[in-house]
Amino acid sequence: MRVFSGALGTETNTFGPMPTGLASFKERFYYPAGQHPEKLTGYSGPLLAARLQSKSKGWTLIEGMVAGAVPGGKTTRLAYETLRDELLGDLKAAMPVDMVVLGLHGAMVAEGYDDCEGDLLMRARAIVGRSVVIGVEFDPHSHLSTKMVSNADILIAMKEYPHTDVMERAHEVVSICADTVAGNIKPTAAVIDCHMVVPLHTSRQPARGFIDRIQTMEGQDGVLSISVLQGFPWGDVAEMGTKILVYTNNNPQLAETLARQLANELISMREQLAPIYPTIDEALDEALAFKDGTVVLADGADNAGAGAASDSTFILRRMIERGVNDAALGPLWDPVAVRTAFEAGEGAHLPIRIGGKIGPMSGDPVDLDCVVKKLSIDLRMTGLANASISMGDCALLHAGGIEIVVTTKRNQAIGTDLFTQLRCNLANKKIIVVKSMQHFYASFVEVAAKVIYVGAPGTSTSDLSTLNFENIRRPKWPLDDFV
């Protein structure tokens, strides 16, 4: 059997101030056909799973381009069309093939393309025809569209949030595609729109129990796969929102019935799924009053993983004004500050202005008298599924009682080694502020006695009512009353 695999993805915050161009992809990761390394990078799960299964099953694997960018504002038309056409060109060159497995995101929006994944899959289908099986692994924070479903045989989203199951879902995609090619199964899809957008933090109930129960259904009684699409709230496109996707083995009625049942269950628990977001001062009050260990404050509103700049100063400023000690914060994206710190050198006492660079949702810059505690050239943070993520040159600045990780590359906090490689001892910190929404959890839970999700201002704010939606379908809870 001949198998083709490649990947292209980013998550687009249509309210984000920074466009995502070709340089954004080249900076994060870009591998031309046949040049992807052995380790996982972002959306390459299906390719690596296909590599492993090809070796044991004697398939011929043709590897196409793999590219991904840190989430940001709209992808430029040039970037999307250039990378899309390169990946599709690789597919054409690989023909004939029996199976195509791709790694995509599901919430990529470009100038002129509100549904990049649907567009790419439609063009891929036109190349290979209806007889070739197409499978995709994608992110649960996606805008599931009719075009995506109709042009793929199987779409499987990661179930865990944080997304620690990248490789498990990738292997499912490859295996179900192979069984479809062999004629053992015939995937049939059903999609139910829940008319809401909610996060499913699988680190806590009730999301944990819901996902666990879904997984027990898969592989039983003709159910092939169940995906919960949480939706990506900061994408102002028609398909934004939470949806249930069910595949059965040639049983459309079962797929429809089960999808509707699960959607109704999810809708009924929407209030419990939504985290509580205290204000900055309320979160600091709660953290300072907590006496049983380290408190992690999640600044999801400035989460680079949702397209924010990661340079906001709202929480940092209040910590300084309130005299908070024994604290750490990061990553704060400020390449100019990092360069200044490198020029000064480790141990230097340095007056410096940091953060607040990109726009109103970044806050005002903060002026600090600090000590350059540690510098690192091209620091690599451990990401999800142990993927390595470049944070660029980084500096640890000590100002008053706060240690701040400043980076040259914009990424969210995922691994605790973002701090510890810079010799920031998290164990003795009272408060750790992470610029991340949830992906920090898998690693930072090892040091956190308590986690608080902060309702701070920012481009990826939890208060969706402050965003000017023009294109989403309404009603959409929590923006609207549920009907």
Order of adjacent strands in the largest pleated sheet:
12-13-16-17-11-18-10-19
Class computed from helices, strands and strand pairing: alpha/beta
Gyration radius, in Å = 22 Å
β-strand amount: 15-25%
How far do the termini sit from each other?
49 Å
Q: Bin the helical content.
A: 25-40%
What's the number of helices? Answer: 14
Overall description:
By secondary structure, the chain is an alpha/beta fold. 29% of the residues lie in helices and 23% in strands. It contains 14 helices and 19 strands. The protein has helices spanning 22-28, 45-57, 77-94, 116-128, 146-151, 166-181, 207-217, 252-268, 270-273, 280-289, 314-321, 335-344, 417-420, 441-444, and strands spanning 2-9, 29-31, 60-68, 99-104, 133-138, 154-157, 187-193, 223-229, 243-249, 295-298, 327-333, 349-354, 366-376, 380-382, 388-390, 394-399, 402-407, 431-434, 450-453. The chain has an eight-stranded mixed β-sheet with strand order 12-13-16-17-11-18-10-19. It has a six-stranded mixed β-sheet with strand order 2-3-1-4-5-6. Strand 16 and strand 17 (402-407) form a beta hairpin. Helix 2 (45-57) packs across helix 6 and helix 3 packs parallel to helix 4 (116-128). The longest helix is centred in the N-terminal third of the chain and has 18 residues, at 77-94. The mean pLDDT is 97.
